[in-house]
Amino acid sequence: MSTIRPLRPLRYDTRRNRDLSKLLTPPYDILDATDKAELLARDPRNFVVVDLPHLPPKDAGPQHLYEQAAATLRQWLAEGTMVQDQEAALYVYHQAYTYEGRAYVRKMFFAGLKLEPFGAGSIYPHERTFGGPKEDRLALTKATQAHLSPIFGLYEDESNDVARRLEEALPPEPLAIGTLDGVENRLWAVTDTVAIADVARLIGPKPTYIADGHHRCGTAMLYRDWLTAQRGSLPVDHPANFVLCVFCAMEDPGLLILPTHRVLPGLAFLADDLAGPEVTVTKLSVNDPESALAALPAHGPQAVAFFTTRDDTYSVVRPTREGLLDPLEPEHSPSWRRLGLAFLHAYLLDRIITPGPAGGQAPKIEYIKSNSGAVAAARQAGGCAFLLQPTTMAELRAVCTAGDLMPQKSTYFYPKLASGLVIHRVVD
């Protein structure tokens, strides 16, 4: 079961001004020093000063930086910049945005999610985690005694029961609003105990698939275990047993998964160099990445587009048979072996390009989200690019429930969640 609970979080005080545009920040793990400086130039109380004390957050930094972040949080509470809500609530969170000329609203909510070992209960990861980033987050959690940024969890709800129940209980006006990177963020508190119980009951039987925040979830488990070692067994309802989570239905029309394309800088070869008994190459009469990507669905879910500066052409590359990877990658699930990204990495890159055009060494790979940006990077570096179809929810669900993990950078959930809206204290 996915066990959730309402929150009594810390929040910026919005009683006088509910516009948090200058105070919100993107997730810490996509920011650099320049980004941090720009956010603090908007307002020195921008949440980034607490959420990102050490750069880059790939390993633990000096302890005094985390203590300084904790002192800032305490100061904000003392002076009233932040307050703690006294009534437990589920916090409904909407993001309104435009992508490729179309307007979307992604409907979500904040709650505490009871921690469970990955894959042993109802929480399913889709990415591998690494020790360094968790060391940074653990040091920050110990200092602040709070989950500062949420994980992003997906649940199945084809009939939209959860979102509909929350909509019925929404107050007329949001507690907070804020525009960040062109995305309008809106936050409401649902305190109705019947509505909260209904949502908990509806969510209960559903697995939670982690979309973003694997390191944050792993850190929450480490902190809980550390606190248990310090204090002994924790009460079942102790806040440290729950991780701050933003929940969104997989079927929500505002939930987009975008691909991350692959560029091989300085390595240019012809599409025909990829062709063979197991690989079909189809030349395309197009001259832009959007047209090449539009052609892919007709060639099947494993098809990828290939652009090369060798002759400035686009092609579709796909396996000649669906089960190509079955005998080659037996340690992975059948669902993983049917992914276009698996075909690209486990076959094209590992078994054709590395021993062939790359001369026996694995090529350098750059990961670029923009279609045109990937082609531009290939042009600039005199290389080639693989343009990918987005991962589908069905693919993600199938790989996760099989106990497998997606290939690296297989999902880009757009837009990113804003940090600074809701903070979960993990103390009594």
**Derived structural class:** alpha+beta
Mean pLDDT rating: 95
Shape: globular
Helix count from the secondary structure assignment: 12
Strand content: 15-25%
Biggest beta-sheet profile: 9 strands, mixed
Low-confidence stretches: none
Helix fraction? 25-40%
Distance between the termini: 24 Å
Q: What Rg is obtained from the alpha carbons, in whole angstroms? A: 23 Å
Per DSSP E runs of 2 or more residues, the count of β-strands stands at 21
Q: Would you kindly provide a brief summary of this structure?
A:
The protein is an alpha+beta fold and 428 residues long.
What do you see in this structure?
With 428 residues, this protein is an alpha+beta fold. Helix content is 30%, strand content 24%. It is built from 12 helices and 21 strands. The chain has helices at 33-42, 48-51, 63-79, 131-144, 161-168, 193-203, 214-231, 289-295, 334-337, 340-353, 371-381, 393-401, and strands at residues 4-5, 10-12, 82-84, 90-99, 102-114, 123-124, 146-147, 151-155, 176-180, 183-190, 208-212, 242-249, 256-258, 261-264, 279-284, 304-308, 313-319, 366-368, 384-387, 412-414, 424-425. Strands 1, 4, 5, 6, 8, 9, 10, 11 and 12 form a 9-stranded mixed beta sheet that branches. A 6-stranded antiparallel beta sheet has the order 15-17-16-19-14-18, sandwiched between helices. A two-stranded antiparallel sheet has the order 2-3. β9 (176-180) and β10 form a beta hairpin. α4 crosses α7 and α5 runs antiparallel to α6. The longest helix is centred in the middle third of the chain and has 18 residues, at 214-231. The two termini are 24 Å apart. The model has no long low-confidence stretch (mean pLDDT 95).
